[in-house]
């Protein structure tokens, strides 16, 4: 196995970082207590807010896996598939962290917390940090399942 060029790492980290910014803005726009509805002070919406980020993480993970598998199907694409997978998985973790910080930053920037609030981050924040693992886990799971099914369906030499 040859080592992947640094451009592979840069490409996947940049792709997922940009995706993280988009996911963070979408999270702030769509989540309860974000831009359009709900009050961040109401603790009953905090689970829904985390669930919205998890849903966007699933979509981003599916998109990353599809792009990763399409890159492997191209001629010569299998040569650096392990390095490409590791770059995409690390990038997905980076994208999740960026999405979280961008969403919280947008909440801090565009919402005014009440004066009597103990912590201003309560207005818009992530309560379940494990949600940030959804994007990389979905990416890894989809790639694994695709590779497993492809290996099971590949004809063996005994079939010929």
Automatic annotation (TrEMBL):
The chain crosses the membrane at residues 12-31, 51-73, 85-102, 122-146. Keywords: Membrane, Transmembrane, Transmembrane helix. This is DUF2567 domain-containing protein. It comes from Arthrobacter alpinus. The lineage of its organism: Bacteria, Bacillati, Actinomycetota, Actinomycetes, Micrococcales.
